[in-house]
Design goal:
heterodimer, A: alpha+beta, 5-stranded mixed β-barrel, elongated, B: alpha+beta, 4-stranded antiparallel sheet, 17 helices, 62% helix
Chain lengths: 147, 654
Amino acid sequence: MTPTRKRRLTGVLVIIIGVGIAAVVAMQALNENMLFFISPTDVEEQDLPAGKRFRLGGLVANGSVSRASDSLAVAFVVTDGAKSVDVRFDGILPDLFREGQGIIAIGELTPNGHFEASEVLAKHDENYMPPEVADALEKAGHVESET
Amino acid sequence: MTVELGQISLLAALLTALVLGLVPMIGTYTGNRRFMAVSTTAALIQCLLVMISFGILTSAFVIQDFSVEYVARNSNSLLPMHYRFSAVWSAHEGSLLLWELILAVWIASVALFSKRLPEVFRARVLAVLGWISVGFLLFILLTSNPFGRLIPSAAEGLDLNPLLQDFGLIIHPPLLYMGYVGFSVAFAFAVAALLGGEVSRDWVRWSRPWTLVAWAFLTIGIALGSWWAYYELGWGGYWFWDPVENASFMPWLVGTALIHSQAVTEKRGAFGNWTLLLALSAFSLSLLGTFLVRSGVLTSVHAFASDPTRGIFILAYLAVVVGGSLTLYAIRAPKMIQGGGFAGTSRETFLLVNNLVFAVMAAMVLTGTLYPLLIDAMGAGKISVGPPYFGLLFTWLLVPLVLALPVGIYSRWQKDEGSRLAGMLRWPLVMSLVFGAGVWIMEPDIGFVSAAGVTGGAWVIFGSMFYVGHLLKRKNSFKIPASVLAMTLAHVGLGVFLIGLSLVSTLSTEKHLRMEAGDKYQMVDYTFQFLGTKVVQGPNYTADEGEFVIYKGEREVTRLYPQKREYAQRGNTMTEAAIDPGFTRDLYVSLGEPLDQNGRAWAVRVYHKPFIRWIWLGSIFMLCGGMLAAANKRYRRKLPVKKPVKTGSKEVTA
């Protein structure tokens, strides 16, 4: 092997190893930061472990929103028509959060069975339903009647 | 009846684009100079026709012609005049027309400002751009016609989405598209070079200013989007790793790699094929971005309600562009520019680090964005990839990038001595370490990672500035080459950005509170007092306006008036944050929702964001650097007379 070739080969090897390490780290990070979308029916059926973060999606049940009088704590029920989950949240809800509106809550189940949300998302456009939520509603047999 | 003229004009533009794509291309293979000369005329006529079409749609908004469906859906008689202009690109159809308009303007600029290029090469560039335009015009005319009538006509419009009724949205899309679409020029240069089997590297120099301008626009377009999200979404975030943000960020990453690899190829001939590949990828990723946004496959704050035929069309278009250009690349690239070798310690090596890091970053973002789609398509569940994935990867990938940057600036092409570099970089290194340590001592809360980020930012800034000093000393004159100044500006911008990012991500204080009129809250050095709300009337909304007094000690700093707006027509509620911006900190207040019946108690967001402005300030530096580099006289110098460029061989189809 000529010195030039040898040097090139080292260069290429260094690059391959570097990119390889980056890819492994990336895959690891990807797996750790994957959030599954789960509907209330799935919650019921899958017996999820407490403390595992996921995205819960569905409609805010009518008449279910209740607020604390001295803090920002709020409780509501998310439903897909068939099953529902109690959600607690301490913070400011998005502008388009309403009863009957499709939302996504990110958080985890607590040992006593409710869902503790750290973030609640509703979409900017009032006609827009998050595709996952629309899909989950359809599966649960909920007839879409929203305008 | 005028809106029909808009559509006719668009049809005529399509025909012109076909002529632009076909005639000059045939000319380049038959050697017919008159055919090739058609390119200029066709490019200019096309631009004029698209402008007419765009003008007609705009006038429909200005005169409020609610018989046009698109106008009726996105405007309202109460909409203030300046938003009637920006409403044109507020939804799918109009924003595509804006895309096409900007493409037509780029094509016309290439036609006007590239007269010095060899005529065969120039004709091919314009013809390739013509084909890109054909694809987009077909897309608009077949799936997304903004000129459709509403029968019977609507008496009143639905109103523009309130989020878009904002200054940022007047300028963000056009600038972003200038960048996105601008990469089509670099793409066309690369395809033309492949078609012609260019062995000389002249074409790289010709395409550099175009690439730089597109990159600079994309930089500022993304920065504006981030700034808009920060003040308009009302919760103080400036980057969410939202799929659509990623869609604009991927071409930027590849574009950044491209402007650096072009430098190597132009100067040294090395990385020739890589430069070609990056030029093809940058535009392909712009198209992918368009596909992701327009097809509605993604869950995103930007996603519009969608129509599957549009997605399929864009996907097919993407397949033709990516597939076609990569096939051409596979056939031709092995015979293209062959570069000179270089040693392990040389400017080429450090620019190689730059290119690898940016390519890996783009690949990571692509993975994080497309992985959920892949999982969903396989039926393995619906997932999303959280921001920590991106944050973690970028933190690590920035390390080699930042370390290598100043070293690359000082090193010589082809071969350099490590000891020489170490000698020159000693002072910037010491100063940045002292700076970083100083910041860490003053603000121990920022932690190691952010302190390292501040040090890295300082390393980039000092390294760049010392280089200017070094040149001045060596040349013993006050003339700094414009290209060095441009590079320094852009790199200092990166440094400023890094320092801002490191500080804001760790020093920010964010609090969600329940406040009643009269309540006070102390945050860092500031006391926020809520005085209460009153109702104010806007042109097309009613708002609850809160009043906050902010004190530092006993002194009143400012008063902030955040609003909660109700847009009657759509029944939307909107948060309008109030911000007191500053060089070293922003004070940010926004109203959540009323918590009791009489409106005395409100949910309130109170934020203190140190150095957040530096993020956008850095981007402005990068913009200036890019523009200055593109304005370099070197690119406008008259070409030496050369033998005409080889015409392409027969086995390649255009």
